[in-house]
Specification:
CATH topology of one domain: Immunoglobulin-like
Number of strands: 7
Radius of gyration: 24 Å
CATH class of one domain: Mainly Beta
Helix content: 55-70%
Distance between the termini: 51 Å
Oligomer: single chain
Largest sheet: 4 strands, mixed
């Protein structure tokens, strides 16, 4: 266990098949988002190798409950697998029980993709989720092409299990954040819309069934509404109007997107939402109303939202940071507005939050998390240099440096992946 406890990080396990000799070559290396960071790693007595049990199976092979196992005790290993023919996929880290990322040779990735597209249930739901997570994580490091990762999502319109959708939502959410100010964003919206439309018709609006089914329904409805499904948006608005006019309760799993679309256009419904936030007795419900109010794409409503967020008569000071989080992470048009308001009101925000251990850190992260261009990096570093002395001995200074590193990581992601994913979307969206 010492290599897992006494050195940082975790490995990428790569399975490369020798299709002529029916053998599997297995290798490991430390997982790094920045390949050049390898030179900055602290020395380890274990050389960033891990003793790793690797569970595996293949098409027509052992079950996902009782898979085969191979122990990798050094950098590389090899084992025969004559049972797996050249047109059968091999899958490792069954049900994601091992703490590592898994990579394969290109042909095996294609075989796995083909299996997902033809009969995804031949692979367990947990392993389907792991495949999606591994592919997108590896794409962020340049180990695989982003098109490979996107290809693994093409079957999702047939996916009826929660966990693969949760993983896909996480990574597609990051891609959405990276693309939202680019010309590729429209096609991404169409792609996600197409993936969820069939499921939207299936799951319906009755909040019934076991908990995982209810969570899946909520996830699909939220994605459908967020990515332009007019039927979903209209139904959400109808449910909000019924609640607003008659008090008919909205199911808890639906509240966020129902509140969001019911208040996004302004008017008395939005005033009602503000009243619910200001006068509510439940902290969690109050924060739900505040998040829902962030969902509008009307610039004037967002400007008023931010003005009120800075006024303690309207928004509690600890909740102001939540406002910046919602605009920076989730609103497709609010990021620049939040960044400008943050800089314009720096003196006031510094007085409020720089003395706290976490609040200023959270605020800086919220405002900058979506930065992904050299221009934004220059703006951030110029601003940081101008206000660094304000934070000497207070919270937030390290977060400015972390924000710069995060922006550089996002720029690297864009440099590696933007043009390829743009081409992929143009090819795969009608």
């Amino acid at each position: 266990m010492n290599p897992w406890i006494l050195q940082s990080g975790f490995p990428i396990i790569t399975l490369s098949r020798d299709y002529q000799s029916s053998a599997i070559q297995v290798s490991q290396e430390v997982f790094l988002f920045e390949p050049e960071a390898k030179d900055r790693l602290a020395q380890s007595p274990y050389g960033y190798e891990w003793i790793t049990p690797i569970t595996f199976t293949y098409n027509g092979g052992p079950t996902f409950i009782e898979p085969n196992m191979f122990w990798l005790n050094e950098t590389q290993g090899r084992f025969p697998l004559p049972e797996a023919s050249t047109d059968n996929w091999v899958l490792a880290n069954i049900n994601r029980t091992g703490y590592f990322r898994t990579n394969y040779d290109d042909n095996n990735w294609r075989l796995l993709q083909y299996q997902l597209n033809t009969d995804h249930e031949q692979i367990s739901a947990s392993s389907r989720a792991a495949l999606i997570g591994d592919a997108f994580s590896l794409a962020s490091t340049g180990k695989v092409n982003i098109s490979l990762a996107m290809n693994l999502t093409k079957y999702l319109f047939k996916e009826r299990k929660l966990v693969p959708w949760m993983v896909a939502q996480e990574y597609l959410g990051y891609i959405s954040q990276m693309l939202r100010y680019t010309s590729a964003y429209g096609n991404l919206k169409k792609y996600i819309f197409n993936q969820v439309s069939l499921l939207y018709d299936e799951v319906g609006w009755n909040d019934t069934g076991i908990e995982v089914d209810r969570q899946l329904r909520s996830l699909i409805l939220k994605l459908a509404c967020n990515f332009g499904h007019k039927g979903c948006q209209n139904k959400a608005s109808e449910q909000f109007k019924a609640y607003y006019k008659t008090g008919k309760p909205v199911p808890p799993n639906f509240r966020l997107f129902v509140y969001a679309y019911g208040t996004s256009s302004g008017g008395p419904e939005r005033d009602f939402a503000w009243e619910q936030y200001r006068n509510g007795n439940s902290t969690s419900e109050n924060l739900l109303w505040l998040e829902a109010l962030s969902a509008t794409t009307e610039p004037w409503l967002l400007s008023r939202y931010l003005e009120r967020a800075l006024d303690p008569e309207w928004v509690r000071q600890t909740d102001t940071i939540e406002v910046f989080k919602h605009l920076g992470q989730g609103n497709p048009v609010g990021g620049y507005l939040a960044w400008n308001v943050f800089r314009s009101n720096w003196d006031m925000l510094k007085k409020r939050y720089a003395g706290g251990l976490f609040l200023m850190n959270d605020l800086i992260e919220a405002v900058t998390i979506w930065f992904n261009t050299p221009f934004l990096l220059q703006e951030l570093e110029t601003f940081s240099a101008n206000i660094a002395s304000d934070l000497t001995g207070q919270a937030g200074l390290s977060s400015l440096y972390q924000a710069s590193d995060n922006t550089k990581a996002n720029i690297r992601w864009m440099d590696m992946n933007y043009h390829e994913i743009k081409r992929w979307l143009e090819t795969n969206v009608d």
